[in-house]
Each structure stands twice: as structure tokens, then as C-alpha cells.
Amino acid sequence: MYKHFIRPLLFSLDPERVHHLSFWAIGLLSKLGFSKVFRSLYVISDPRLEREVFGLKFKNPVGLAAGFDKDAKLYNELSDFGFGFIEIGTLTPKPQDGNPKKRLFRLKKDQAIINRMGFNNKGVFEAVENLKKEHRVLVGGNIGKNKLTSNSDAKLDYLICFDALFEYVDYFVVNVSSPNTPGLRELQDKEPLTGLLMELKKENTKIAAKVNQGKEKPILLKIAPDLSDEQLMDIIEIVAATKIDGVIATNTTISREGLVSPLVETEEKGGLSGKPLRKRSTEVVRFLAEKSDKAFPIIAVGGILGPEEAMEKLDAGADLIQLWTGFVYEGPSLVKRINKAILEKSS
């Protein structure tokens, strides 16, 4: 139904407008009592789907990636579509509008999206207010820096977000890999990244001792797919040195290789997600898993538009997977189809 009726209607409208319209509709339908209907259609509960990763128990390994519920408005409602976890953000200390519109583009022929949103969000403290209600699902907090914050002062932005969210999220994701904030990817270099993660680890220990009986929150690093093998080896060394809990591979790419959509679409600046990212993101997952001897958990995201791509990521060494563009193109049934494929393989 989604692909034949709902998607054509939505795809006839501006992508960002559709995002806001979808949020409004999901929120309204949930308030009208449709949550039970959604859960009956899309949620699969089975002990064989459960995963314990970095100390957390996930109902299933399929999550929603950051960027969809930026301000933590609908994490419970979105879990009704079968997700095992929801990642909010990317959040920054101060509210910011992001980059000028138009900034979100569909590449239908490539089953892809280009975005240059630029960390548009209402600020971490508004998200905290939204997170104070009871959670029906595990929630990750994806944190970044404000656009006007220099890289030399970036640590403070990440610490502000970390402190504010600590009591309200189950794990953290350090986003230094978005291509849409000028200079942000420079923080992936070995020295600044090590310093940033060490600061967050210290803060983790300090806050946990005060408010969480010494239990620290998992910290993950989200990396770009455009890193070289040498840079990926640096990531492995950084994870070992800082003792963070895992990696999310990967963010969007600046590559435009192999696209078939018209140039007027493919030449738009921003990060590319969707089907064209499938191969590279899987390569990064496999490289990290093999070269580290599976020393840390990996959440795979990038180009998952069906069960085949999901199983490919898991076979390459991922512990969990996340959807974003696939959810837009395939609809909520994708989550159920992937979970069913995992069950079939485990039987």
C-alpha cells in the first residue's frame, strides 16, 4: 500500500515539507489511538531477535538512524513501526536553523537522497524536555557542534550536549562526520578526535558517579564512508586508545560515483544516502570488523533498502543496523521484512 499509493502522493511534494507532514500525521494518528494498530501491523516480538550490545538489551537489531526525529518529538510513536531503537538528533547546544532551503533532494532513479540540512534542530535543552516522558524504546542521543562554534572550541559543545542528555538517553553518538557543517569532518583527524573522545569519557565517568550509581553510558563514534583505509586504521586505534564502546558506519557520502539521475539533481551539494551508499558502507563495516578482529560493536547504516542489504551488513560484521533513506523509500513494512528475514535465517 505504501509504495503504490502513499509514496507516489508524498513524492509529488517537496521532501522537507513531506517530512513535517509525516511527523504531523504520525503524531495525530497516535493520539487518535492508532498506535495499537501500527504495532499489530509492524512489530515482531521474538526472543531470537533480541540483541545485547554495549551493555544494552535491544528488542531487535533494526533501528532508526539520526536525522529523522531530530528533536526527540516522536521516538515512542516511531517505535510502533517495529524499530528496536531510535536515535535522535543530531543535537547542538543552541538552536539553529541549518542551511538555507532548498536542502533536501530525492534522486528517485538512484533510490537516494541528498541532504544538506546542516544540523537544523531546536537545541539540546528542548529535546531534553521532550525526553522526560516514559520511553517505550531504547533511545540514542546523536550530538554535534553548532555551526558558528570553531573546531578549537568544539569540545565544549559536545560536553554541553552530553551533560544535558545523560539522564535521558541510553547511549551517545559523537557525530564528527556530517559533510554539511563546515570544517566538522576535520575533527575526524586522529589528534582532535582522540582528544574529544577522551574528554567525553572523563565526563561520562564523572556524571555516572553522581547520578547513575557509577554506570556509564555507551559512547559511539559515527564515521564517514569517505575515509581511506589508513584513516580507518586510525579509527580502530582511536577506539582502542579511548575505550569508547563502538562505531556507527557510515554517515552520508560526498561521492557521486555511479549515479544515473540527471546532473541537475546529482550536482546538488550535501551528503548522499540510499542505495548508492550500500557497497561502500558494507566495505567499511567489513574492514573495521576484520582489521580490529571484532574488537568493538558496529552499527551499520547506509543503503539498506531491503532484507538482502540488511543481511549483507550483519554478515559483514555489524551487530545492529539502522535505516533512514530505506524507511523513506520502502515504508514501515521494511522493518518487519528485515526482522522476518533475520528470524528465517536463525531458524
TrEMBL record:
Keywords: Cell membrane, Flavoprotein, FMN, Membrane, Oxidoreductase, Pyrimidine biosynthesis. It is a peripheral membrane protein. PROSITE patterns: DHODEHASE_2. FMN binds at residues 66-70, 90, 142, 175, 222, 250, 274, 303. Substrate binds at residues 70, 115-119, 175, 180, 251-252. Its cofactor is FMN. The keyword Membrane applies. Residues 49-343 form the Dihydroorotate dehydrogenase catalytic domain. The active site is at residue 178. One of its GO terms (biological process) is 'de novo' UMP biosynthetic process. It is found in: Cell membrane; Membrane. Binds 1 FMN per subunit. It catalyses: (S)-dihydroorotate + a quinone = orotate + a quinol. Its main location: membrane. One of its GO terms (cellular component) is plasma membrane. SUPFAM superfamilies: FMN-linked oxidoreductases. One of its GO terms (molecular function) is dihydroorotate dehydrogenase (quinone) activity. Its EC number is 1.3.5.2. Pathway: Pyrimidine metabolism; UMP biosynthesis via de novo pathway; orotate from (S)-dihydroorotate (quinone route): step 1/1. It is an enzyme of class 1 (oxidoreductase). Belongs to the dihydroorotate dehydrogenase family. Type 2 subfamily. Catalyzes the conversion of dihydroorotate to orotate with quinone as electron acceptor. Monomer. This is Dihydroorotate dehydrogenase (quinone). It comes from Aggregatimonas sangjinii. The gene is pyrD.
